[in-house]
Amino acid sequence: MSLMSSLFYILFVFFTTSVPTRELLTVIESSGTLTIGCWITCGTLWKVEIKHWKDALEETTRQSQFDRKLELKGLLEDLAAEGLISRQDAQKVYRSGHSKERGDAHPLTIIADRRLNRVSPPHELLTLEALTVWLARKANLPYLRIDPLKIDVTSVTSLVSYAYAARFKILPVDVTEDRVLIATAEPYVREWENELSPILHRNISRVISNPVDINRYLLEFYALTESVKRAVGKAASNRIDGTINLEQLVELGRAGKLDANDRYVVNIVDWLLQYAFDQRASDIHLEPHRENSDVRFRIDGVLHPVYQLPTVIMSAVISRIKVLGRMDLAEKRRPQDGRIKTRAQTGSEVELRLSTMPTVFGEKLVMRIFDPEIVVKSFEELGLSSNELSRWKQMVSQPYGIILVTGPTGSGKTTTLYSTLKQLARPEVNVCTVEDPIEMIEPRFNQMQVQPAIGLDFAGGLRNLLRQDPDIIMVGEIRDIETADMAVQAALTGHLVFSTLHTNDAISAIVRLMDIGVPHYLIRATLLGVVAQRLVRTLCPNCKQPGEIDDDLWQSLVSPWKIAKPKTIFLPGGCLECRETGYLGRMGIYEMLRTTPALRRLIRADTDVMKLREQAMKEGMHPLHISGAQKTCAGLTTIEEVFRVAGTGEDF
């Protein structure tokens, strides 16, 4: 080939690359090898040898063709060609969405917004997730549903600047010593991959993710990281540490005091609360440690690590939440309680119950989240079987007496009581409660908060409620003989009383009342029934899979009952909706005890617990693990979940 042709090629390659300003260009052709020498203003010699320049030219052409963004027209043609949408729908979407494409909207988002159904059976809706999965398959790349709980935000945001990630709409989602996993919604744009690989000194693996999720978490992750970074910088510029840390290392001049109203701290708290609402968390745990402090969410009864904050920032975050909850900001030595009422992005009101506890590294804060749409349910939504529902309605329809709900903290007692009281709170009924603290504000109830600081305890509050002409009374918890006596007196004088006890099963509640000091004859006269309950995770309806069960495992669950093993049970699978856990939501399992005349005769000063239990089971009471077995047969939960919360039948 002539030297002139070679020169034209070199000029084309050279001036279309991002090489710095050139001063001199040398071209040498020898046996098919082109050597380019370029001296730049900084005095550095750039030399590139391109062997077999024809192949190099073809590769350059292919690369320029490959680095292209998705276009609405091309995607619609591909969808129509594969029979997912009709040609007419493709034309309509293109005409209406062509103007949006010129903006920042991703073509998949434009198509998903039209809510098209697949042309071929089963005619399911082509959601953004479904279209993203299709794109990943078409591009021969893995699909990833971004789960923020599984991402180390600090690590991934330190790899690439926000400006660079936002420019290419990429989001690092996982990082190891030799590999970086990066999510993108543009499978045919590779420019950033070639630039980042030598800088990060790691192999880059690409996955396809929902473009809306990428944009959302790109902003959230980097905004959170920037807020934490700036808060740390501001704290370090001060000299005073406002936390009480019994195990703090003395490093003068290192820790700083950060104001609770600092805008970076406000941003962190706002993100934390909204993030918890989005993830369906029931509790938020803020746990201080010596260097870094943990943020954990409880979702469906299981704690998940979410984020780590420097301890000095965690102290400021907790102070900010205490301010919102109208708690004493200066008091860090004693536990405190508070509450916050706010709104989720959906517009629904959400209440948070706050509780602080002094630890060796500072204050620990737990926020329990009460969403009225979740807390207050109908009887059927509580998970009661038809038999249990019938027995429960018989108890709550009585005009007077005591009904107890038992179980450990977090077993759903509040949900059961509030849901029941809301069903009973008719215009002609006066419902009064005395609680510590008030779990959720309900306009239909007259709610009183216990305040020990001024001498208002459960017994005093209950004594006052009896002068308020109540029909139904709810006492948060029976803790002592004085409260128990007032509850019994209220029941004897014609009131329906609800309360809670911390016992493992229903029968133990009778023994517990006697241990507190309530005479057996008063228990016999007033107790209508006891419900013991637990919460089990329910199988995700979108991915649960049929399976088989071992005979011995089934017998260990139902023993000593003789219940036939189901032919098919369901096991957890794992999908996008349940975050690959196989479980989505929780429901109750119940042990329902009604005090019939035969049972009342067995309640004596020397009550035999075994005889009480035998008589209760003869009259239809099923223990917790049998209720769990019934829900396992119905395909609602698993044996492992029942074992986790209720034990085995062999323990009964």
3D architecture notes:
- The longest helix has 26 residues, at 211-236.
- The protein is an alpha/beta fold and 652 residues long.
- The N and C termini lie far apart (91 Å).
- A 7-stranded mixed β-sheet has the order 15-14-16-17-13-18-21, with helices on both faces.
- The protein is built from 24 helices and 21 strands.
- Helix 3 packs antiparallel against helix 4 (87-101), helix 10 packs antiparallel against helix 11 and helix 16 runs parallel beside helix 17.
Q: Major β-sheet, in short?
A: 7 strands, mixed
> What would you call the shape?
globular
In what range is the share of β-strand residues? 15-25%
How many distinct beta strands? 21
Average pLDDT: 81
Termini separation: 91 Å
Radius of gyration: 33 Å
How many helices does DSSP assign?
A: 24
Low-confidence stretches: 11-54, 56-65, 239-258
Share of residues in helices: 25-40%
Largest sheet: spatial strand order: 15-14-16-17-13-18-21
Overall structural class, as computed from helix and strand content, comes to alpha/beta
List keywords for this structure.
24 helices; 7-stranded mixed beta sheet; alpha/beta; 39% helix; 6-stranded antiparallel beta sheet; 652 residues
